[in-house]
């Protein structure tokens, strides 16, 4: 996602955009481009919200309305200058988005889009009922933007203002995605569990992106008001909200530039249909809506991820993330002295309904140890694991970390204490590079916020995070893959990647959930060697494993579970001879 | 406000609530079985009402032509899909379902339209024209995307909605239509006059709810639909085809939509774009029902109708705002009580 | 009828860019139990899913002497039936409905007939026919999954870890039921972690590791194979 | 497949755009933007249809007419208007069907100095502009006639029910401005949305307020719903409807309930009933006969007539302008504007237009008639 990737085509487009109004193009193109620019702004917000963050909203047009009405009222009734109202319009957008976001972003799946559909309609009708906003007639006579004596009246003059904002917003969005906060937002799509496990506050990341989308829409509304110079509720209705979403989805909901592409495509298509259809069909009946709807269906049937990825295929590009050698090191945790107890599980119990999944299990992990938690499938290993990491709550007993109880703590909080984990079914972001996946693990070691990210003020910290991610990749031996999409890796490499990501958290203890499952023999050997190396570096590890041969030569201590109950606990050699263990593993009556 | 007015308002709210309930149920049905948030459900209502109204005036309903067009499209798509193994039974099935069926209905409409048959014949004909549209729309728009994400399906729904609304505009024009009631006259319950049409609405809504209940509880196909909603993989493993349940859900939805149209057509003016806003009120109910619960959706729909009726009395200018804001407290409540789930 | 009920040749399956099955071949005679054992992540479940048609695969799958039908429902109709690891029951529906839906592709009369049969085989389920499937205990759920599968009149049952998460006594019950099924003419492809128990009831065994068949042969021979034991208990690792 | 789709879209785009750039400017070019889809479709479609009845040339100059849809959205109307001005170099623009769209077009017209005939009423600050002329009857004119009629009928109090949009607001504003002059008091104000399926609540409240009469501020068939509901709820007083409601669809839908109603209307709905010698009769008959010959019996509307009237004005104004300049030039546009402003009176189907520099509404009482419904037909009162 580095912005230098498509440098040349971007420059060409930029120059083209800059000179276009000076060329002898039909002036109508400029009007159309202005509309595209404004729609692009809303669509960029939606790309962040829907494409990247996985939250669908139909209500963005209403946020445009807040931006537009704020400036319209302030400039016409109170004589504010348009530039003064810009921050106010954006602030109003943010202020409205905040409570709505608080209500809706915690809900999963389809509630959000349907919720936005409903309040999108409600807000539209509200605009038409408020006297201050001129009711249904709206507000006319909004002053144009001006600098000194120059007034941005004509289409080709405001064109520059609009597209400056579009490009700045797109770059800001691009910068944001290429940052610590952006990675957290991009991680939302993979489900909330994994990001929480390395310290991302998922609810806050969702709210952030919701508010940002609201602010970009408000910006579009502000521009709209000063371009149109008269507003009324119509452009902020739900059908416009739907259209913005269409632009984002058709363009390719995961791509910032796809938003501009989608907005152009939809608006140009509508123009073309209006011009061409009557001649094609030979009637003046209104077929535009039908053709437009049908095209939408067809496009999605052929290109589910939108059209931008299709466009990108014509411009194959390789990106490479440069690691700055002079990047400062991140602060490191003080390693506990070997032998001090880290995790103490005391009579941990978990019941699901009547089923006892974990039955009063106790064991301990000491610093500098590798402890194996083994047992047949369904023995309660993963549940125990989830209890330690806070993904599941205890029904009884307690779990202590460095002497402090973890009961009631969130996974995020536990991660912050220095407990890092991997997942049995790896939860990586396949579209993101290997390096960025690892950097996600270091999330809570950075502090850069949204604004710093957009303005690139956190580059030193970002370089440090990246350098740290690189260090961890080198540590686990995946350095050569750093720029590959994580989805390209083989399963074994993905498991190692997860370990690197966990290491990036600077953990005190590493919790690995079946790290050897699905690995080839050689890969298992490498993994074992890696874990031993980590232990040598002072890392403590608790690993859940099914494969006894893998753990035997590796662990210092073994805990065997069967049917939620601890059936053995001791050195690997002792455990192996234990008849109960043999019975559990081989079945029958050994 | 006195008791009389309250009684009037409640009656009015029940009438619209019953229609919203039908819409809400259809939405829940389609979503739980296919994961499609079926925005065009309202279009079936508009099509139903407008078809009936055209039949009332002895005109041939353009929806029958539309059905034929849909059928031909579905036929071509099926032909293309099966191009690798084109044998007689496959072809026969394709011709029968996609060409003969709409052809027969078209002819039926052609014969019956000018005859000015009784209201029930016309109502039945309306249902027969609209219901198969569910099948073809599923086939044309959704089947190729059966495993797509909810978001993609949602956007496809928007596309289908726009296309269907556009077709409505072309076929029915921009002006409103109103159908004749199934039976005229009214009864009085004390001081409260109750029109025969509103009795039809209550009766049909109850009948449809009971019918759906029986279908889901007593028939194997109904159980297969429920099974699909509960566990898609499990349903596939026992041999329930995704397409079968999908088609059934869509045909049921279209049928319920057509009936809603027949019921509402005579009590109000229906425009080509009315369906959307009525459908959205069904959505409010369906959201309150979590897009999963039939009974909660039905009750919520009645609630929406009654709230709407009372706000139209007290603050008519703010009616839409209030009705569509209804879901906000529900969402707040859900956001507090429901624990955060992993998305699918 | 072919002498090979199922013949899988050179089966490849990929998830995205990663191949997880690298050309598995396997054959089974009618009326036999074949056990597939192997570690977690070895690709056993993937193989069953591919045979059932739940995921796309390359290579050939022949069922009853002919290429396996294309769609899942055609495979079910032809007598192939998968009982997945997670059972995939209709938890908010009654036991009876679950069982009935198992016979979705059968005629009503057939359904009634098999249903009576199934209840006889699983009296526990007969007692609980009105109960919701979600409220059953683990063993009962596995029984229900088997019962539902039997309703489709299978000729080849694909069982994915039927003993998973069950108490030892129930594991034995379930495997006994599986063994009995063979006597009614149903062939069984059994994926099990519980290697010894699985090999005990099986005719043939396959050891799958990392998406490839490592060893195959008569179950009795595999059961005493020392290398296999090592794999499971980690001696000499 | 995907690539081909993209390529063809791109090709279509290039083709059509290059087609746009090379338009001939020799003829008189007219740009019309109306809402033929969206919420204003009921108004926009008759407008669009009426364009088809226009002559193909005036005074030997070929007419080049471009019709675009703005879906009732002012930003699309602006886009359309800009396109008329910049690409098509139109000599006059017409539209839109809804007020917000007309305001948008007027803005572009003033900026680009092109005469503009608005097919919907616009607020005073727009109608006082130099380039925009209004075709429909001003609400004030209609309101005056309606309020006067109400006063004559002995109405003291009335209840109002109107669309919850600017059309609904319009009549309340008119009442606030001049209602007192006619001794009227509004004792209830209710609103509803066009797609509403029921107005029972509002009707109950109106009936409960016991007004002498009820005024409905709605248009098209949407005006029929309160009419029917009020009658159903037992309201027997006179119901007054604005000119927006005067369509045959209204009668079709309201049926019996349409009786005992007074409509303010433009004369075009009943040219047959007008006395010979009435200034609007000739144009009115010409329009409705042509329209109904093409689109069917009983399809005439108030809205469509504005398009006819636009042509009635242009037929007289264009030859005047042609004396001064060639079409397609700025001088021609200015001359056309002057001709519209000073060349009147223009007798038309909806009234006699006589614009003046300080009056771009141009109509007088001849543009309003009062109708009632008898035997399912509109009938002139008096």
UniProtKB/TrEMBL annotation, chain A:
TM helices/strands, residue ranges: 31-49, 61-80, 86-104, 111-127, 158-177, 207-225, 245-268, 280-303
Membrane topology: Multi-pass membrane protein
Top-level taxon of the source organism: Bacteria
Name of the protein described by the UniProt record: Metal-dependent hydrolase
Keywords attached to this entry: ATP-binding, Cell membrane, Hydrolase, Membrane, Nucleotide-binding, Transmembrane, Transmembrane helix, Transport
Ranges of residues in domain ABC transporter: 343-588
Main location class: membrane
Record CDD domains: ABC_Mj1267_LivG_branched, TM_PBP1_LivM_like
From TrEMBL, chain C:
Entry's Gene Ontology molecular function annotations: ATP binding; ATP hydrolysis activity; branched-chain amino acid transmembrane transporter activity
Keywords, comma-separated and alphabetical: Amino-acid transport, ATP-binding, Nucleotide-binding, Transport
Pfam families the record matches: ABC_tran
Name listed for the protein in its UniProt record: ABC transporter ATP-binding protein
Domain ABC transporter as annotated: residue spans: 6-235
Organism, as annotated: Nitratireductor aestuarii
One BP term from GO: L-amino acid transport
Record flagged with keyword Nucleotide-binding: yes
From TrEMBL, chain D:
Cleaved signal peptide residues: 1-26
Coiled-coil features, chain-numbered ranges: none
Domain Leucine-binding protein span(s) in chain numbering: 28-361
Annotated GO biological process: amino acid transport
One Pfam family cited in the UniProt record for this chain: Peripla_BP_6
Keywords: Amino-acid transport, Signal, Transport
Family: Belongs to the leucine-binding protein family.
Name this polypeptide is given: Branched-chain amino acid ABC transporter substrate-binding protein
């Amino acid at each position: 996602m580095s912005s230098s990737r498509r440098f040349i085509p971007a420059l060409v487009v930029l120059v083209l955009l800059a000179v276009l109004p000076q060329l002898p193009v039909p002036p109508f193109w400029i009007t159309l481009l202005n509309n595209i620019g404004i729609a692009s702004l809303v669509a960029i917000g939606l790309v962040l919200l829907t494409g990247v963050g996985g939250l669908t909203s139909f209500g963005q047009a209403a946020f445009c309305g807040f931006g537009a009405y704020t400036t319209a009222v302030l400039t016409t009734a109170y004589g504010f200058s348009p530039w003064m109202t810009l921050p106010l319009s954006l602030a109003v957008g943010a202020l409205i988005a905040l409570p709505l976001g608080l209500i809706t972003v915690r809900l999963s799946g389809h509630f959000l889009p349907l919720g936005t559909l409903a309040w999108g309609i409600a807000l539209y009708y509200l605009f038409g009922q408020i006297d201050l906003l001129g009711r249904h007639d709206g507000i006319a006579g909004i002053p144009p933007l001006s600098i000194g004596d120059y007034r941005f009246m004509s289409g080709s003059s405001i064109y520059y203002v609009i597209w400056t904002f579009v490009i700045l917003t797109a770059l800001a969005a691009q910068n944001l995605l290429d940052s610590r906060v952006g990675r957290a937002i991009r991680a939302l799509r993979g489900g909330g569990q994994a990001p929480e496990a390395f310290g991302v506050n998922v609810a806050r990341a969702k709210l952030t992106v919701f508010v940002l989308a609201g602010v970009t829409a408000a910006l579009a509304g502000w521009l709209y008001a000063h371009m149109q110079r008269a507003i009324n509720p119509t452009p902020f209705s739900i059908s416009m909200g739907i259209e913005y979403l269409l632009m984002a989805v058709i363009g390719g909901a995961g791509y910032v530039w796809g938003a501009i592409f989608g907005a152009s495509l939809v608006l140009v298509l509508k123009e073309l249909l209006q011009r061409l259809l009557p001649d094609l069909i030979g009637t003046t009946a209104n077929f535009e809506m039908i053709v437009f709807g049908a095209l939408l269906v067809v496009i999605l049937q052929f290109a589910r991820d939108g059209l931008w990825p299709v466009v990108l295929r014509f411009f194959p590009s390789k990106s490479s993330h440069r690691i700055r050698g002079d990047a400062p090191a991140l602060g490191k945790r003080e390693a506990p002295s070997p032998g001090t107890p880290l995790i103490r599980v005391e009579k941990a119990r978990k019941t699901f309904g009547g089923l006892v999944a974990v039955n009063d299990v106790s064991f301990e992990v000491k610093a500098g140890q590798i402890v194996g938690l083994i047992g047949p499938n369904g023995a309660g290993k993963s549940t125990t694991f989830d209890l330690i990491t806070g993904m599941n709550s205890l029904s009884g007993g307690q779990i202590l970390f460095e002497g402090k109880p973890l009961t009631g703590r969130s996974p995020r909080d536990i991660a912050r204490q220095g407990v890092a984990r991997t997942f049995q079914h790896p939860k990586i972001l396949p579209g993101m590079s290997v390096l960025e996946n690892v950097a996600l693990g270091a999330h809570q070691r950075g502090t850069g916020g949204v604004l710093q990210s957009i303005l690139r003020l956190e580059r030193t910290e970002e370089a440090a995070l990246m350098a740290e991610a690189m260090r961890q990749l080198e540590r686990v031996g995946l350095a050569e893959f750093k720029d590959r999409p994580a989805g390209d890796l083989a399963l074994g490499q993905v498991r190692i990647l997860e370990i690197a990501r966990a290491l990036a958290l600077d953990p005190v203890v590493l919790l690995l959930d079946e790290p050897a499952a699905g690995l080839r023999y050689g890969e298992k050997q490498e993994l074992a060697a890696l874990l031993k190396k980590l232990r040598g570096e002072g890392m403590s590890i608790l690993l859940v494993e099914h494969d006894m041969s893998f753990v035997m030569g590796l662990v210092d201590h073994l805990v065997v579970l069967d049917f939620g109950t601890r059936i053995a606990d001791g050195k690997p050699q002792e455990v192996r001879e234990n008849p109960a263990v043999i019975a559990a593993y081989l079945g029958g009556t050994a | 406000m006195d008791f009389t007015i309250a009684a009037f308002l409640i009656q009015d709210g029940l009438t619209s609530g019953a229609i919203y309930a039908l819409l809400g149920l259809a939405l829940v049905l389609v979503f739980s079985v296919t994961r499609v948030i079926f925005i065009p459900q309202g279009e079936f209502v508009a099509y139903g009402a407008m078809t009936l109204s055209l039949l009332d005036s002895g005109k041939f309903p353009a929806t029958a032509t539309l059905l034929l067009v849909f059928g031909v499209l579905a036929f071509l798509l099926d032909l293309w899909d099966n191009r690798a193994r084109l044998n007689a039974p496959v072809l026969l099935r394709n011709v029968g379902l996609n060409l003969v069926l709409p052809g027969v209905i078209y002819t039926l409409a052609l014969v019956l339209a000018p005859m000015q048959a009784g209201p029930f014949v016309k109502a039945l004909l309306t249902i027969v024209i609209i219901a198969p549209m569910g099948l073809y729309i599923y086939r044309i728009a959704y089947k190729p995307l059966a495993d797509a994400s909810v978001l993609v399906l949602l956007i496809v729904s928007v596309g289908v909605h726009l296309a269907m609304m556009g077709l409505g505009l072309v076929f029915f024009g921009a002006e409103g239509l109103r159908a004749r009631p199934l039976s005229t006259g009214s009864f009085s319950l004390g001081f409260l006059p109750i029109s025969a049409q509103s009795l039809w609405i209550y009766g049909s809504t109850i009948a449809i709810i009971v019918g759906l209940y029986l279908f889901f509880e007593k028939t194997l196909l109904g159980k297969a639909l429920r099974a699909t909603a509960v566990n898609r993989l499990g349903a596939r493993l026992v041999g329930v085809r995704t397409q079968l349940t999908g088609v059934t859900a869509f045909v049921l939805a279209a049928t319920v939509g057509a009936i809603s149209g027949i019921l509402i057509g005579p009590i109000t003016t229906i425009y080509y774009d009315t369906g959307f806003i009525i459908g959205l009120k069904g959505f409010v109910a369906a959201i309150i029902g979590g897009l999963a619960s039939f009974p909660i959706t039905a009750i919520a729909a009645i609630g929406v109708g009654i709230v709407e009726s009372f706000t139209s009395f007290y603050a008519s200018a703010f009616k839409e705002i209030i009705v569509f804001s209804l879901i906000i407290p529900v969402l707040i409540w859900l956001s507090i009580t429901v624990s955060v789930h992993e998305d699918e | 009828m072919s002498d090979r009920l199922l013949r899988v040749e050179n089966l490849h399956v990929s998830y995205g860019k990663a191949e997880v099955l690298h050309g598995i071949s396997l054959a089974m005679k009618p009326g036999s139990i074949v056990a597939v054992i192997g570690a977690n992540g070895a690709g056993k479940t993937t193989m069953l899913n591919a045979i059932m048609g739940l995921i796309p695969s390359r290579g050939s799958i022949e069922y009853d002497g002919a290429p396996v039908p294309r769609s899942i429902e055609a495979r079910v109709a032809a007598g192939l039936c998968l009982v997945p690891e997670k059972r995939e029951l209709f938890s908010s529906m009654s036991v009876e409905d679950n069982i009935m839906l198992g016979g979705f592709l059968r005629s009503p009369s057939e359904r009634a007939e098999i249903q009576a049969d199934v209840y006889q085989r699983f009296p526990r389920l007969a007692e609980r026919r009105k109960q919701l499937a979600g409220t059953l205990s683990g063993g009962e759920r596995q029984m229900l999954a088997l019962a539902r599968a039997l309703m489709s009149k299978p000729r080849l049952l694909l069982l994915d870890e039927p003993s998973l998460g069950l108490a030892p006594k129930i594991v034995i019950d379930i495997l006994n039921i599986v063994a009995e099924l063979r006597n009614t003419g149903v062939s069984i492809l059994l994926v099990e972690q519980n290697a010894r128990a699985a090999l005990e009831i099986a005719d043939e065994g396959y050891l799958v590791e990392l998406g490839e068949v490592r060893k195959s042969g008569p179950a009795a021979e595999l059961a005493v194979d020392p290398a296999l034991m090592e794999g499971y208990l980690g001696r000499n690792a | 497949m995907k690539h081909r789709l993209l390529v063809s879209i791109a090709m279509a785009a290039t083709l059509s755009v290059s087609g746009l750039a090379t338009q001939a400017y020799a003829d008189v070019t007219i740009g019309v933007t109306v809402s033929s889809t969206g919420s204003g479709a009921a108004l926009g479609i008759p407008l669009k249809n009426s364009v088809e009845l226009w002559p193909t040339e005036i005074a030997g100059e070929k007419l080049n007419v471009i019709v675009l849809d703005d879906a009732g959205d002012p930003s699309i109307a602006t886009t359309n208007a800009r396109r008329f001005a910049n690409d098509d170099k139109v000599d006059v623009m017409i539209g839109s069907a809804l007020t917000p769209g007309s305001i948008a077009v007027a803005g572009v017209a003033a900026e680009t100095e092109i005469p503009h005939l608005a097919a919907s009423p616009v607020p005073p600050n727009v109608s006082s502009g130099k380039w925009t002329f209004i075709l429909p009857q001003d609400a004030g004119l209609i309101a005056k006639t309606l309020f006067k009629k109400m006063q004559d009928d002995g109405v003291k109090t009335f209840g109002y029910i109107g669309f919850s949009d600017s059309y609904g607001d319009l009549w309340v504003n008119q009442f606030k401005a001049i209602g007192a002059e006619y001794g009227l008091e509004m004792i209830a104000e209710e609103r509803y949305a066009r797609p509403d399926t029921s107005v029972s609540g509002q009707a109950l409240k109106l009936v409960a307020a016991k007004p002498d009469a009820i005024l409905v501020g709605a248009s098209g068939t949407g005006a029929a719903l309160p009419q029917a509901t009020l009658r159903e709820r037992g309201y027997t007083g006179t119901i007054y409807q604005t000119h927006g409601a005067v369509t045959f669809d209204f009668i079709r839908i309201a049926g019996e309930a349409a009786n005992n109603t007074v409509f303010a209307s433009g004369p075009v709905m009943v040219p047959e009933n007008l006395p010979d010698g009435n200034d609007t009769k000739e144009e009115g008959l010409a329009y409705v006969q042509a329209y109904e010959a093409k689109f069917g019996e009983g399809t005439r509307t108030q809205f469509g007539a504005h398009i006819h009237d636009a042509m009635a004005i242009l037929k007289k104004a264009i030859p005047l302008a042609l004396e001064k300049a060639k079409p397609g030039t700025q001088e021609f546009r200015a001359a056309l504007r002057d001709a519209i402003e000073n060349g009147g009176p223009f007798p038309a189907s909806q009234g006699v237009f006589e614009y003046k520099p300080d009056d771009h509404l141009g109509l007088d009482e001849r543009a309003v008639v009062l109708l009632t419904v008898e035997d399912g037909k509109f009938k002139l009162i008096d």
